[in-house]
Specification:
Helices cover about 80% and strands about 0% of the residues. The chain is built from 17 helices and no strands. Helix 1 packs antiparallel against helix 8, helix 2 runs antiparallel to helix 12 and helix 4 packs antiparallel against helix 5. The two termini are about 40 Å apart.
């Protein structure tokens, strides 16, 4: 039996359109992580120098960024299920750029109250899910089934590129033109780069586009999509969400303090380059994970990723020589992207594609609460002890607990599959 290709079927005319969506995700991730993730350590260093505010206060400001992610993730997950990822990306681009402009105005002295800085970071936090893993994965899940890991690896490599480029670029632009001019330019570039992606590239598949090329099922009708109660009443969801939250909290707590932690032994420029090394290492790690997804059980992969980053954090405690700090950043950075990729993969593996946006939004809410708490606690512990020893050990403990949880989930899953 043969099937005639329809003339309006875009997949028959060249590159499968899902790969263009992955390329658009690369651009989104570049700015999400470059501006809204890796940039925080730089913002803390600059604002700490200009305001003299303590690390605990600035850590709380960054914690507010992650708390704003909670409500935004819940809302955007439902929006993505109902309307697709495009509206979330448009909002993410506009709000993140507005946060850049507001930071520039704050540093320029147009306003300077502490609550205003909290408001700026909350605005940027509400934008983050619209550019980061939530929106990227929601845009890709309808297009891919067998190659979802590879598509996520390609798209989220933009996070590594953003982390490699943005901190040194911010440092260079700030030194040459001033922090306010640097953030204004970055905000403008963000709008000019991401809005066309949102309006032209990000869209769901039509007809048999996804089904023929990647075996992905068409999106379910709105009435068939699971409600939040379905996931909240399932122990599997809580185990996956808890492991993802603990691991992301540990990762964010480290990355938000990476520049302040390394600024002493390496200087501001050296610390920024350490961030770049971690980001480049993360790009390699994403593709390694994508290659292993089909060969190694996801719980085992997850536990391995968590323990690798824990090892990198322990190496940072050595303090000297500088070369070891760069190596430690590379080790910890190798799984940065993997830890971000694992929640979508674990959720799709456990629950399928129906209601994915809702499931990820609920999971992201927990992840961002933990990211907020870990970031703030790291700053508080540093102020209390005057060193990063206990903060880093605490983050290592979170990774170990996350690894134990995800392995327990895998064991329960195997037992359920083996049951008659």
């Amino acid at each position: 039996m043969t099937f005639a290709l329809q003339p309006d079927d875009g997949a028959a005319r060249g590159i499968y359109r899902g790969w263009w969506v992955a390329a658009g995700g690369f651009v989104m991730a570049f700015y999400a992580w470059g501006v809204g993730f890796y940039g925080h350590g730089f913002y803390m260093a600059v604002l700490g120098a200009s305001t003299g505010w303590p690390a605990s206060l600035l850590s709380s400001v960054v914690a507010g960024f992650w708390l704003a992610n909670v409500a935004a993730s819940l809302a955007m997950g439902r929006i993505a299920d109902r309307f697709g990822a495009r509206p979330t990306v448009v909002y993410g681009a506009l709000a993140m750029a507005a946060g850049c402009f507001a930071l520039a105005a704050f540093e320029a002295g147009f306003f300077g109250a502490r609550w205003q800085l909290f408001a700026i970071f909350a605005l940027m936090g509400s934008a983050y899910p619209g550019l980061a893993a939530m929106a990227v994965s929601a845009a890709l899940v309808p297009w891919f089934r067998r190659r979802l890991g590879l598509a996520l690896g390609i798209a989220l490599t933009g996070a590594s590129a953003g982390g490699a480029v943005m901190p040194p670029l911010m440092a260079w632009l700030s030194a040459r033109y001033g922090f306010d001019a640097a953030m204004t330019g970055i905000g403008a570039a963000l709008i000019l780069s991401v809005l066309p992606v949102a309006l032209i590239v990000v869209r769901p598949p039509e007809g048999r586009e996804a089904a023929r090329e990647s075996g992905a099922a068409p999106a379910p009708a709105a009435r068939d999509r699971p409600s939040p109660a379905r996931f909240l009443g399932d122990l599997r969801f809580w185990v996956i969400a808890s492991a993802c939250s603990l691991s992301l909290g540990a990762q964010v707590g480290f990355l938000m303090h990476q520049i302040p932690l390394l600024q002493g032994p390496l200087g501001l420029s050296g610390a920024a380059y350490a961030v770049s090394i971690a980001s480049v290492s993360a790009a390699l790690g994403r593709f390694v994970l994508g290659a292993l997804v089909a060969r190694v059980p996801l719980p085992v992969l997850g536990a391995g990723c968590y323990l690798i980053q824990a090892l990198g954090l322990l190496l940072l405690l050595a303090g000297e020589p500088p070369a070891l700090l760069f190596i430690a950043s590379a080790v910890a950075g190798f799984v940065i992207g993997c830890i971000v990729m694992l929640p979508p993969l674990l959720l799709v593996d456990g629950f399928g594609r129906e209601g994915y946006g809702t499931a990820y939004g609920l999971t992201a809410a927990g992840m961002f609460v933990m990211a907020s708490l870990a970031t703030a606690a790291t700053g508080w512990l540093f102020d209390a002890t005057g060193a990063y020893l206990w903060p880093l050990l605490g983050l290592v403990g979170l990774h170990v607990l996350a690894g134990l949880l995800v392995l327990w989930h895998g064991r329960r899953q195997r037992s359920r599959e083996a049951a008659p």
